[in-house]
Amino acid sequence: MRTARKPLTAAGLLWGVAILSAVLAGSILAGLSAGGGEGGLKSLLFPGEIDDHNARRILLEVRLPRVLLAALIGGALTVAGAVFQALLRNPLADPFVLGVSGGASIGSVLAVLAGLGGTGAGMAFGLDGRMVFAFMGALGALILIEKIATVDGSMSVYTLLLTGAIFNAFSGAMIYFLQSIASLVQLHDIVFSLMGHVPSTGYGTVGVLAIGIVGTVLFLFFHARDYNAMTLGEEGATQLGVDVEKIKRRTFVLGSLLTGLAVSVAGLVGFIGLVVPHMLRLILGPDHRMLIPCSFLGGASFLVLADLLARTIILPGELPVGVITALVGGPFFLYLLRTRRTGHEFR
Fold first, then answer.
1. What mean pLDDT is predicted for residues 29-48?
2. For the chain, domain boundaries
3. Terminal-to-terminal C-alpha distance of the chain
4. Which of 77, 184, 201, 203 has the highest local Cβ count within 10 Å?
5. Measuring CA to CA, which residue among 117, 121, 131, 265 is closest to residue 178?
């Protein structure tokens, strides 16, 4: 017999957020301390022992914006996973399953083929052409999938899943076609971006992403009680006064927005939205008032550490961070698939 969980209190929420904030702070310090070349925290703590100018430049202009970007991307993908799992009432749901990542990938590849993939082709607000094209692709996919999945004003979850799966298959075929007409240099850029990586970019990109991601996460947090009701099923949520159709549509739009923002910058970084929310749900419980902010902090820490491992494990080379997340998330997905008792139970 399963015992009922204690109701969430303000003190419990603060403790959970405080602990994961400390974990994130430690992860950021670790990310700043290690990497290829000089530029660790030693350049600030012990000035004069190394070339201060070069070391501080590496630390402040290369590592710090990259670490902050990794934190934002990891937090965005994890929160998207948490709300999609609430929407579908299935812990196997992942931000990429709904097809928006496929549209972002097509946009990114088109930008590379058009010669807009490098920072030299920068656009406003610190965003280069690949980021802008990828976001436009994600937005186009979002609009198309929502239109197809909405029938008579109602969005069917199963139609949404099926549409996302079909669109992902179409996106894969389209990307293979575009790769076949790319040059060798372009092909390298395309493959590397699709494997997932955190770029070394400026604070302009970090600022734009921070505004979009943090604002979206806060909006989703305001619907935490609605997600708690959704775990009872659509009929149960309706009886509790939840406008189910509005919540489904908002969750799809905002969760897809988070995914599109992340993919537009980092490419396909999979499994974070699957692994981290599920682990936190087991530890902290299913209350989304706790789960959403803690998912952001936990996902941010996870990707910062994964990116640290990706850029240090084969020095002086660098692995795509998507390889690290797949190596962790793939076996975990199989474990979830193996241990779940039924196909529709949400725990």
1. 64
2. 30-324
3. 14
4. 77
5. 117
